[in-house]
Every structure is written in C-alpha cells, then in structure tokens.
Amino acid sequence: MREELKRLKLAKFRERFEDLAGQAAEEGWSHIDYLGRLVKEELLAREENQLRRRMKWARFPFEKSLEQFDFRFRPELKKQVFQRYIDDSFVYGGKSLVFIGPAGTGKTHLSVAIGLKLITRGFKVRCVTVQELINKALESNQSQRRKLLKPLMECDVLILDELGYLPAEDAVGPLLYELISNRYEKKATLVTSNKSLGEWGKILGDSSLAGALIDRLLHHGEVYYLSGDSYRMRGKQLSRKPMEEPEKGVRSSQTKNRSEKKPTKRASQ
Fold first, then answer.
1. What's the domain range around 44?
2. Strand runs (DSSP E) across 8-108, as ranges?
3. How many domains does the structure of the chain reveal?
4. Does any domain span residue 233?
5. How far, in whole angstroms, is CA 221 from its chain's centroid?
C-alpha cells in the first residue's frame, strides 16, 4: 500500500492513511468521510508545497504585507486603492506600477506586499534588483543572457527594484527595454526607483529609449511618487547620543544650537 501511494505521489495519503483509519473507526466515519478527509489533506499539503516553491522562486528581499505598511506615515497613499493591484485583472491585463521616491519611503515594501498577495492567488512572481540583473547580464554570453531573461519575461508578475540607485551601465537601457517591451500588455510589471521619470533618460543613457520604456509602462499603468522621511530613520534623531567631539568638518546639532543661541559680537553687528 505504501509503495503504491509513493508511486502515485500521494505523500500526504501515505503519511496519514493509517492514523485516519484509526480515527475513522473510533468515531464511526463512513468510507466516503474517510476518503474525503484524506483527499482534503492531500490537496492542502500540495497547495502549501506549491506556495513554498513560489515563495522561494520569487526571491523577495523580505516578506512584508500590505497590512504591515503604515499608510498613516504615507497619507498620499490610500490602502483601499491598492486592493485593485492584488486582483487577477491586474495580472491578466498586463498592467504596471511604478513607485518613485527616496530610500526608505516604502517602495520595495509595497511592491513585495503586492507580490505576496498575488502569489497566494496562484501567480508566479519574480523580484530582482536592476543592478543584480545588469551584473549578471554583463557576465553572460548571448545564450546565457537569453536563459537569464526567459523567467523574467515569462513570470506573471515581475518586480524590478532599485532602478537608478547605482551609476548607469551602457547595457541598462537596451536590456530593460527588451524586458519591458516583451512583457507589454501580457504580464504585470512593478518598478521602484529613486529617480523621477524625467531622469530615466540619464539612467538608461538614451532619452528616446527611456521615453519608449516609460510609454509602455504607463500605457496600462500608474506611477506613485512617495515623499517624506525614511521609515528606517523614524526615531533615530531622538535616540541618538550626541558625540563628544564632532568629526572633522562636521558640526553636531548640539554645537550648532549653541552657536545659534549665542551669536558672536561680529555676527550681531
């Protein structure tokens, strides 16, 4: 029996059929109830395994949900609006999202949170930093490059993180254009960047190419500009201890405050 179940790849059946048979006998289950319980546990186990595989394949830098995002800290964003991006139509419509703002404003958090929700709905999601993608592409020959880009072109949802954080490479523009144009109107794409759309020409080294890429992203997409202080820096100013001696060329806030309260005679004149 165990060998047959193994050949049928019914791992949960094989693990649980004896225990459930004893429980069924004690509680008077029918044969249908017993079989139904085994089938249900097998299906749940397979769904959990598939979810784990999709999560591993996604390569998220961390796991954070929309519920963990502090929308009070970003009043320009509305939580209810983001429900539309975790709907099947966002993926099947080949739509796009672009988050622009300084470091720490929640761009990657929001992208990962949307990706996580879509993974639970059965979609294949992949997350990659632009710099990592470029580095791998530069090290690849033509055959390896195709192999590198294939899963990024074919996944249901692609998150391109941190566009513009590091100096531009000559390969950035053509590579991203190839990727985005192949996904255009077919697959969902999210991009995070610390540079405004007007600066993408400098990032990609070609203003015309940047315009064509932006046109494809925003034809069926939206852009959000995030502003304000970094999440990671909240409370740091309050908890930081003043330095005994400011580093050379740097004035501590304490030294600055004293000089402002007690101006010199020459300054007051």
1. 2-57
2. 96-100
3. 2
4. no
5. 17
